[in-house]
Amino acid sequence: xxxxxxxxxxxxxxxxxxxRRGNDLSDPLWSARLLVDSPxxxxxxxxxxxxxxxxxxxTASYQASFTGFAARGLGFDDTAALLRRSVELADAARQExxxxxxxxxxxxxxxxxxxxxxxxxxxRGRYGKTVAELRAWHRPRLEVLxxxxxxxxxxxxVPDVDEAEALVDLVRELGVPAWVSYTxxxxxxxxxxxxxxxxxxxxxxxxxxxxGVNCCRPQDVPGAIRTxxxxxxxPVVVYPNSGEDWTGTWTGAARFDAxxxxxxxxxxxxxxxxxxxxxxxxxxxxxxxLRAERPG
Length: 296
Fold this sequence. Notes:
Elements: E1 8-9, H1 14-20, H2 34-37, H3 39-52, E2 56-58, H4 66-70, H5 76-96, E3 105-110, H6 113-117, H7 131-146, E4 152-158, H8 161-174, E5 178-182, E6 184-185, E7 188-189, H9 195-200, E8 208-214, H10 221-231, E9 236-239, E10 245-246, E11 250-251, H11 260-267, E12 269-272, H12 280-293
């Protein structure tokens, strides 16, 4: 899927499109709440990205967890069903646009422990938990998503090496394909570790089919691509946010420029998309540019 010729375009921020459609996501479950309340909206958001030219849909399971849904009174079986539903909704969108031609894939999102805390911890890491504790917390969700029918797992927005080690251990144990992407600040993880050390965590792990960065500033992407290619022999996935600053609200200027995708591709990225505040219009710009640069 990711090792063939050409660039694969991923989607943008699922929550961004859901909010544009009028959904209120001011909830600790964020977009995962709509798995319960408005599944049709999730399908529509995925379909919008597919129609924009994305070939990968990342599911609404980023902030979905047994812990989070338990706080709403949902038991294990109900939560497992909702995790599977996140994949089913992405597949429904894929079927909806199937007549457009071309192959499309579903990446089941596995967000970090900090996302479930809903306090911005995924941008800091260092939760005070051991690798073993993080592995035990993540295991039930990964086990469900590994059997959900998704094409791969998107282990994303990982802020530090400890959590990456826990997640990579589980991916290896479950034997499912996954990409691992860190959220970074410059040339370090959000927890402050050098990126070469972070990327080295996946070296030699066959189940990790790509490594990269997401939910970072666009200007952090070129250096991350070069570091990843130097450290590991795997395809590189990049999907930064708009470049605005998150301080409880989004502030500052957007810096995501679809034309930058040309440089990211030249640097060696195999999968290019967007994260928070990158909507279907920008993904369409990326897809159009790469199609023009590399027909077919």
